[in-house]
Prior knowledge:
Layout: H1 2-16, H2 21-31, H3 34-51, H4 56-79, E1 81-87, E2 91-93, E3 98-106, E4 115-118, E5 125-127, E6 135-143, E7 149-151, E8 157-160, E9 169-172, E10 174-175, E11 179-182, E12 200-220, H5 232-238, E13 242-251, E14 253-258, H6 272-289, E15 293-298, E16 301-306, H7 309-320, H8 329-333, H9 336-339, E17 345-351, H10 352-356, E18 367-372, H11 380-391, E19 402-406, H12 412-418, H13 421-425
Parallel strand pairs: 1-10, 2-11, 14-15, 14-17, 17-18, 18-19
Antiparallel strand pairs: 1-3, 3-6, 4-5, 4-8, 7-11, 8-9, 12-13, 15-16
Helix pairs in contact: 3-4, 6-7
Amino acid sequence: MLHSTTVAKFFRRLSTYDVAPEFSRRVRRVALSPLGVLVIGISVAVLVGLVVHPRVFALAGGLGLVAAAGVCWPWLTIRGVRAVVAFDRPRTNEGTEVGLSASLTNHLPWPAWGLTVRDPKADSTVRLPTVAGRTKSVYRWTFVPPVRGEYPTETPVIGTAFPFGLSMARRTATVAGTLLVWPKTFPVGPVPSMEGDDVTEGAVARNKVGTTGDILGLRPYRRGDSPRRIHWSQTAKHDRLVVCEVQSNSRPVVLLVLDHDAGVHTAGADGTHEWAIRTLASLTKGWIEAGAQVGAVWGERFIAPQAGGDQIVRILDELARVGSGGRPLREVLAEKRVRAVRSAIRVVVTSDVGFHQSPNSEGLGSIRWVVLHREGFGNSADRESLRTSACDGGPPRRRSGIWLEIPSADELPHRLRHGTAEASHGS
């Protein structure tokens, strides 16, 4: 009995074993499609007409006419339609609704029914109303870009399967300009204070001693002080020269460094790589708007520090196009052009693994480290895997010298705004 059961299982597995799964998949896709079923019906009708009775040929002919109409009509319709897809703006941020429009021109004398446009995200289809013959119609809809990047990710396609849905005739649409989606940004704290007086002069008042700002306090006269800064009432009271200390109108210079090495980050829209880019974008926008000169470097890309709104656009445009991997941080910090930037506060955005592997910063001056903990980012499976790795003796989770520590995506907005010493006590 046992032997017969084993033999039965063997033949059952043998009868269901697929020798060529890819070929089988293609056959099923064709044979089980509406057109495939209709072709099989025509073939059966022809065979029955040959074997049983010629009257069945009428059925085969009727099915053939339906098949011909279902293939030729969509093909002819799509040949006469032109489509231009456009965005309502050239730039936006992640998660912000964007308007799209499709301008359809029908050159045929009859209407074009059942038209669809595949969404630029390439994961959904937008159905359009009928376009009358020899007319031009414009249809609008919206979509929300989930991640940064350049859209459309592939060429939009218009199509129709009217009248029977047997065959989808397609044609590529023209794209009138692309959409650049910037990383999401958050409010940030003040620019970190620079040790010493090695800063660029500008029109931004800071709470450090200078020569042209508001009065900060009083001190005894020193040789070389301007007589205009002598506080005469305090001088008479203390019987010695007393001068006013005023603010310094200086413009801080910041060089932001993104650790672009895929080996130290978690991937995906919620991984540390994307959140590191969002962090750098937030610091760029916030500090330039505060009056600082900001530059950025990652991989092969280097943007020299500058101020103004054009610099925000320049850096965020480049961040929108950043790929998924680049050179290790060690090589980036060792570059001559990075070391050649004088008077700059260097802020490195990396993960806890990247911070643990960080190179010696000798010759670069003081570095502010912004560290994202990998186990706080990504999907639940990634987080659990990283926690298990840490428990099994993975890289250390902490090390002294971190300027801003971000444990999770949920805490990132608050930490960027209030997590630094400058945010707590003023710059």
